[in-house]
Amino acid sequence: MRVLVPVKRVLDYNVKPRVKADGTGVDLANVKMSMNPFDEIAVEEAIRLKEKAGVTEIVVVSIGEQKAQETLRTALAMGADRAILIVSEDKVEPLGVAKLLAKIVEEEKPDLVILGKQAIDDDNNQTGQMLAGLLGRGQATFASKVELSPGTVVVTREVDGGAETESLPLPAIITVDLRLNEPRYASLPNIMKAKSKPLAQKTPADYGVDVSPRLTTLKVVEPPKRSAGIKVADVDELVAKLKAMGVAK
Amino acid sequence: MKTLVWVEHDGASVKDATLSTVTAAAKLGEVHLLVAGQGVGAVAEAAAKIAGVGKVHVADDAAYAHALAENVAPLVAKLMETHDAFLVPATTNGKNIAPRVAALLDVMQISDILSVESEDTFTRPIYAGNAIATVQTKDAKKVISVRGTAFEKAATEGGTGTIEAVASTGDAGVSTYVGSEIAKSERPELTSAKIIVSGGRALGSSEQFHAVIDPLADKLGAGVGASRAAVDAGYAPNDYQVGQTGKIVAPEVYVAVGISGAIQHLAGMKDSKTIIAINKDEDAPIFQVADLGLVGDLFKIVPELTEKL
Ligand SMILES: Cc1cc2nc3c(=O)[nH]c(=O)nc-3n(C[C@H](O)[C@H](O)[C@H](O)COP(=O)(O)OP(=O)(O)OC[C@H]3O[C@@H](n4cnc5c(N)ncnc54)[C@H](O)[C@@H]3O)c2cc1C
Ligand SMILES: Nc1ncnc2c1ncn2[C@@H]1O[C@H](COP(=O)(O)O)[C@@H](O)[C@H]1O
Q1: CA gyration radius, chain A
Q2: From its phi and psi, is residue B11 left (phi > 0), alpha (psi between -120 and 50) or beta?
Q3: ω into residue B215 within 30 of 0, thus cis?
Q4: How far is the first Cα of chain B from the last one, in angstroms, to the nearest whole number?
Q5: Residue B224 and residue B241: Cα distance in Å, rounded?
Q6: Beta carbon of A141 within 6 Å of any ligand 2 atom
Q7: Which of A180, A201, B136, B266 could serve as a FRET partner for A49 with CA atoms 20 to 30 Å apart?
Q8: Angle between helices B69-79 and A127-135 (to 10 degrees)
Q9: pLDDT tens for each residue of chain A, 249 residues long
Q10: Do B100 and A130 touch (CB under 8 A)?
């Protein structure tokens, strides 16, 4: 069984995003970039399925600038087997990413595609659902548990109000939520080993996919700032304030 | 422009998130609704009464019983032949369905809109709400998810929508609903609660979370939320999570107890009207957004507060 995991290079989640003064976007020059945290969870899940559920090969793919190679190497160091980089110096929207992934799925015929539920830069939460729609396959989004057996995957999903379980025939698309697993760190020997794992380079044109954007960003601004209020000295003062606000009687 | 709003419901009544979506849709044009489900007559009746609603399309079929995106998306795609925009609330169901529809229509979805600037231009948060982007779409048909806290709720009475049955597009046969565990709670739902008390990692255990947070929430008639750290540690269920990747809330009053105020948490609650923070670390980032802060040990403060209210 083969698993495909798309991984995106994004601003590290610990870095506070700064809006550029000219209003064109968020400043990504000289800041730490990392694998999208949800994609780390997706890679980890694929590795666990390889360790215990009959998966034989994990292919990771990224669409982005040359530097996304680093992200793919990280995934290889965690335990993926080979990587594909589709180079695009311009940003590709989820619809374009999904179309490219659909082409790779045609070529590689994975039994499962495991994606993150959301890339934490644009917060779109779309790509997995779009890919499943393009392929006409089942989609289990926001997974918190994945049970793979021959021909079927049973997925527990985090939904408003609790959890929901679905069963999908393979091949299927899964997007992962935070509680699915805790991703491992790559060990030094594995980081060294990852350097010699295969990494193929392609372009969107190789797949004949038009990835020109449908959305134009007119401007990017900072949200209205909230100013810090006051500190109260003790519970009595807090209660008095709450009463004055009408929150408590 | 003719819009189609996907109605989120529980089989009996229309969920609140739908009402904000109707308000957003009305800014674009005529509002039609889609009620899909099994045995949804009562929901359709209720939907037709929502203020400003024109037609209510009702698809009553077992294939739609659990809102499986694989079955709902083709139905929506069919209806979109005669509509210009499809809108969903940005709930887990809405987020599951809309992008699949967008793919079928070959359009790029606009997620989580905060405002409608014009027919083709919207604002939306990016980077956990640390930036607000104004985006314009070139697509003729629009697929949009709507942030509930950014739009007023449409009135549930006063509408005179006409109900029209639509044919089922059937079961796509690529997914099966197995079951669900939906927690029943007497407390107000997070996304519509007027007051929310949220607990963080500092609560230390599930027992302490309930022993400290619940009585205060009961006293205030509040909903209960949590940080990711508290959910990950098993102190609170996953659907309590407030934040960038959890629920987005904007109550009148948000009480953060033992929560540090990471940007991912702030992303979910910083539009609350009044924020109250209780934290033993006077430099905790949560105090930078709090209107009222109290520095100290929550295990002393919260029981005393509950008692004195
Ligand atoms: C991809 C991704 C998505 C995420 N999404 C979310 C999200 O949606 N929501 C979310 O909340 N987080 C999210 N996070 C996690 C976020 O980065 C923080 O780790 C998390 O919010 C921290 O939770 P916390 O404030 O409860 O814990 P901590 O940061 O550990 O803070 C605990 C606080 O309690 C205080 N404290 C300790 N003991 C006491 C006491 N006795 N009395 C009073 N105060 C005390 C401490 O001073 C501290 O400020 C996400 C992270 C990632 C990487
Ligand atoms: N440029 C990209 N390259 C590889 N994977 C991507 C890319 N963009 C999105 N994805 C995948 O799609 C998921 C959801 O992203 P999004 O729909 O952009 O929120 C991510 O977690 C990745 O798994």
Answers
A1: 21
A2: left
A3: no
A4: 51
A5: 9
A6: no
A7: A201
A8: 80
A9: 999 999 999 999 999 999 999 999 999 999 999 999 999 999 999 999 999 978 999 999 999 999 999 999 999 999 999 999 999 999 999 999 999 999 999 999 999 999 999 999 999 999 999 999 999 999 999 999 999 999 999 999 999 989 999 999 999 999 999 999 999 999 999 999 999 999 999 999 999 999 999 999 999 999 998 888 999 999 999 999 999 988 877
A10: yes
Ligand 2 close to Cβ of residue A38 (< 6 A):
yes
Enter the DSSP assignment of B309.
-
The DSSP result for chain A, as a single string, is -EEEEE--EEE-TTSPP-B-TTSSSB--TTS-EEE-HHHHHHHHHHHHHHHHS---EEEEEEEE-TTHHHHHHHHHHHT--EEEEEE-SS---HHHHHHHHHHHHHHH--SEEEEES--TTT----HHHHHHHHHT-EEEEEEEEEEEETTEEEEEEEETTEEEEEEEESSEEEEE-GGG--PPPPPHHHHHHHTTS-EEEE-GGGGT-----SEEEEEEEPPPPPPP-EE-SSHHHHHHHHHHHTS--
Contact at CB, B293 and A230, closer than 8 angstroms: yes
B250 close to B115: Cβ distance less than 8 angstroms? no
Q: Is the separation of the CB atoms in B2 and B32 below 8 Å? A: yes
Give A 208-247 residues with CB within 8 A of chain B. Answer: 213-223, 226, 228-232, 234-236, 238-239, 241-242, 245, 247
This model of the complex carries an ipTM of: 0.97
Task: Residue A244: list chain B partners with CB under 8 A.
Answer: none
Q: What are phi and psi of B119, to 5 degrees?
A: -55, -30
Distance CA(B88)–CA(B111), nearest Å, equals: 10
DSSP B277: E
Tell which B residues from 97 to 126 touch A, by Cβ distance under 8 Å.
Answer: 97-104, 106-112, 121, 125-126
Q: Report the C-alpha gap between A130 and A125 in whole angstroms.
A: 10
- Chain A residues with CB inside 8 Å of B112's CB? 123
Q: What six digits make up the tokens of A34?
A: 């990392």
In the three-class reduction of DSSP (H, G, I as helix; E, B as strand; rest coil), residue B12 is classed as coil
Q: Does B38 touch chain A (CB under 8 A)?
A: no
CB atoms under 10 Å from CB of B170, counted, come to 13
Q: How many C-beta neighbours within 10 Å does residue A200 have?
A: 13
> Residue B165's beta-bridge partner residues?
B58
A 140-159: CB under 8 A from B: 140-142, 144, 154, 157-159
> Do the chains contact at A158 and B239, CB–CB below 8 Å?
yes
